[in-house]
Amino acid sequence: MDMDEKVLIVEGTSDRKRVKQVLNEPVEIICTYGTLSDEKLETLILPIEDKDVYILVDADDAGESLRKQLKSELPNATHLYTQKGYGQVETTPMDYLTEVLRGHFLVKQC
């Protein structure tokens, strides 16, 4: 297995679209569509346990509870944050999103 494989976990498809506009490398982006049942969590976690996992969820209550859930299942994941003021990943300004992802991923120059 290639240990350099990166996986980015976001909440929804609009988040995925937004992040893809910034990324400049192929990254597997997984959408959780909100909080996960144990069953769904297991299905999500198993294939990515050995990969380089990053978590970028909304700065709201739903995002926080999802983050807690993922933290216990993927203790080695890197947590990336948008600002509370922006609220959601999909409404985070591109330049800020680029800053958040830079250093972990190859990003496009704004």
Helix-strand blueprint:
Blueprint: E1 6-10, H1 13-22, E2 28-31, H2 38-45, E3 52-57, H3 61-73, E4 78-81, H4 94-101
Parallel strand pairs: 1-2, 1-3, 3-4
Helix pairs in contact: 1-4
Protein name: Toprim domain-containing protein
Pfam family, one: Toprim
Organism: Anaerobacillus alkalilacustris
Any idea how many domains?
Answer: 1
- What's the SSE pattern? EHEHEHEH
Can you name the CATH architecture? Answer: 3-Layer(aba) Sandwich
Task: Give the proportion of residues in helices.
Answer: 25-40%
What's the number of extended β-strand segments?
4
Number of helical stretches of at least 4 residues: 4
Spans of 5+ residues with little confidence (pLDDT < 50)?
none
End-to-end gap: 33 Å
The oligomeric status of these chains comes to single chain
Write down the CATH class.
Alpha Beta
Overall body shape: globular
Radius of gyration: 13 Å
Percent of residues in beta strands?
Answer: 15-25%
For the biggest sheet, the summary is:
4 strands, parallel
Helical/strand content category: alpha/beta
Q: What's the rounded overall pLDDT mean?
A: 93
How would you write the strand order of the largest sheet? 2-1-3-4
For this structure, the CATH topology is Dna Topoisomerase Vi A Subunit, Chain: A, domain 2
InterPro entries: TOPRIM_dom (IPR006171)
Domain Toprim: 5-89
Protein name: Toprim domain-containing protein
Pfam family, one: Toprim
